[in-house]
Write a structure and sequence with these properties.
alpha+beta; Alpha-Beta Plaits; three-stranded mixed sheet; two-stranded antiparallel sheet; 11 strands; about 15% helix; about 20% strand; globular
């Protein structure tokens, strides 16, 4: 009897021990995906509050830790459930969450349903500096919701997302979570990877590898 091949489930592990908070992932994502000014698909948060490099604690006892944040590509994605136009969907291959921009009606129900606040909306005509499309994918029009796609155009070429290959600290690991021998599966298993807001029951395909020590200032 022929064995059925296991369907792929793309996922990412973010090593919080290695992350330097340099924002390379965010900037490269912006360039790769033609993300306009004022919008970010990838962000790097700090535990001390909003803004860049906000430490936690009271001087001189300060700690500075970073939290990269983008779409979690949830298995049980609430954004998919609430979209009245079926513009947000999970692709069968890899289980990644995508948006069909031709169907998006700009209602932003998906933004309200997402517990991670990782979607952005084009309120005005997209502005870019320099004033032309510079990404490897076509830019989105005004009035649609957009977000991280795991660089699906690169996945279809057998390549990893740009944020993974560009990270100078090698803090991101990407691969098939359904393959127990893939680097991402091994990292999650051996480092005890955790999912953000696991209590929400969305089952993210992005895991965070915990810090083994604090990074004092």
């Amino acid at each position: 009897m022929a064995m059925t091949k296991t369907r792929r489930k793309f996922g990412m592990a973010v090593d919080l021990e290695r992350c330097l908070g340099c924002w390379t992932c965010a900037v490269v994502c912006k360039e790769e995906n033609d993300v306009p000014m004022g919008l970010w698909w990838n962000r790097v948060l700090t535990e001390g509050g909003d803004g860049l490099d906000k430490p936690d604690g009271t001087y001189p006892h300060l700690d500075l830790d970073y939290l990269p944040l983008a779409c979690q590509h949830c298995e049980d994605a609430p954004c998919v459930k609430v979209c009245p136009a079926e513009a947000t969907y999970k692709r069968e291959d890899g289980g990644i969450v995508l948006v069909d921009y031709s169907k998006c009606i700009g209602c932003r129900y998906c933004m309200a349903a997402c517990p991670y606040s990782v979607r952005v909306f084009n309120w005005a005509e997209p502005q870019r500096i320099p004033d032309f499309s510079y990404g490897m994918v076509e830019g989105r029009p005004r009035g649609v919701v957009e977000k991280c796609t795991f660089c699906v155009h690169r996945l279809d070429q057998g390549l990893e997302p740009s944020c993974v290959v560009s990270c100078p600290a090698q803090a991101r690991i990407f691969g098939d979570l359904n393959d127990p021998d893939s680097p991402v599966s091994v990292a999650v298993r051996e480092r005890g990877g955790t999912q953000m807001l696991a209590d929400k029951g969305t089952h993210p395909q992005v895991y965070y590898l915990s810090k083994r020590r604090k990074r004092p200032l």
